Amino acid sequence: MENTTNRAGRPPYGILSVLMIGAFIAFLNNTLLNIALPSIMTDLEVDTATVQWLTTGYMLINGIMIPATAFLIEKYSVRRLFLIAMGLFTAGTIIAGAAGIFPVLLAARMLQASGSAIMMPLLMNVMLVSFPIEKRGTAMGVFGLILMFAPAIGPTLSGWIIEHYDWPMLFHFVTPIAVVILLLGFILLKDKKEKVDIHLDVVSLVLSSLGFGGLLYGFSSAGSKGWSSPYVYLTIIIGVISLTAFVLRQSKLERPMLNFSVYRYPMFTLSSVISMTITMAMFSGMLLIPIYVQTIRGFSPMEAGLMMLPGALLNAFMSPVTGRLFDKFGGRILAVTGLFIMTITTYMLSILTVETSYAYLAVVHAVRMLGMAMVMMPVQTNGLNQLPTRLYPHGTAMNNTLQNVSGAIGTALLVTVMSTRTEVYAARLTEEALQSSAQPAAELQQQIMMKAMLEGINDAFLVSAVISIAALVLAFFMKRAKQAEELPDKVHAGKKARTS
């Protein structure tokens, strides 16, 4: 990567532009699909548990592929990795648009995910080596604007397409853009990389796949299958054992696939913990607000998307601002302020009623996303800033992997809280209603279930607020990171000691 960019010279804006557009279209395609799941269920005649694999499978492939990206970035050039990643994504998009049966569609999504998994760490690594620390916040802010804009417009655009066309149009819409980006990459990316004599450790790849894949599958399935299901607890146990073996093996390898020595740098360690905590809390809004708006309040998917649009746009357009503020003031003041806003607004979403106004939801969600914009990118950038250049690929791969895992854990936790508390409230309300009511039993039972689900959602938001408080406390320990000097890995240090 060193011959791709020159940190003392002008950043490679051409390379960055191509990479950012590629990452944007990959992100956009992922958010486009969520609203289309009911239509896919009807057309391809599959149930909820089956169609959910389009999302769960995507997450699994990301969890399996991302740990290997540190090795890929060290071994291959930006051009080669980008063309492979964009080629896989484009092929998956074309196949998905033509899929007439669910297995083909699922295989196409796996292809898309394998390309997308390479794209994000590659872009992050190029940005880290292209900009000095004092300008990195602004650069990451622009990067955040582009990538946050995709999920901002995704649900609304998807709602409009689904209302006017069939679901394959979501993929047909993306295909020509993906082909153009692939051609641009082929023409514009000219970097070369000297041959690096490193080889992928197959045992590490297997352990990593079983470890991260097992955790992601187990926690992702907990919401629908329940914690007592052997599919859930067995896969989580396999994941924990495999991941432990993976970490132990990496500490013994001279060239580890994923270098855990990044956690010898305190600011990176702190940023990882805060980022995981924030991601868990973040999923409460993405998961619970659409359930509340559509199931309890009866709004259409288009109305739900429009309600969340201001917050998503605010999050996107605040990224460059927070990037500049990060360069000027550091990450702690931004993280503390943003997490305070997140905590207050998350609590405000834990007191919803059946009469909460559309405007209240839109405003509170928008302010919550503002707080999130002040936290996520500054915290991660501050942590990565402390790493020596050699560890950038491993730091970005670690961040992206843990974000997937914490997202799965957060989703499972919040769904479990919502489901169990809904059952508790339903039993309590049913017992109270048995004292007598003039309403028909079926109508009364429906009202009870809606009220119970509302209280379950409120309790899940309350748990999310507590998670935000934990992140807020950790944020007070942040310090402005300076790039550390190279610390020798334990393996290398042992070899030096023996030779001397």
From TrEMBL:
It is a multi-pass membrane protein. Gene3D superfamilies: MFS general substrate transporter like domains, Multidrug resistance protein D. The keyword Zinc does not apply. It comes from the Bacteria. Its main location: membrane. Keywords: Cell membrane, Membrane, Transmembrane, Transmembrane helix, Transport. The chain crosses the membrane at residues 12-33, 53-74, 81-107, 113-133, 140-162, 168-188, 200-219, 231-248, 268-293, 333-352, 358-377, 460-478. It is found in: Cell membrane. Residues 15-483 form the Major facilitator superfamily (MFS) profile domain. GO terms for cellular component: plasma membrane. InterPro entries: EmrB-like, MFS, MFS_dom, MFS_trans_sf. The keyword Membrane applies. GO terms for molecular function: transmembrane transporter activity. Belongs to the major facilitator superfamily. EmrB family. This is MFS transporter. It comes from Mesobacillus campisalis.
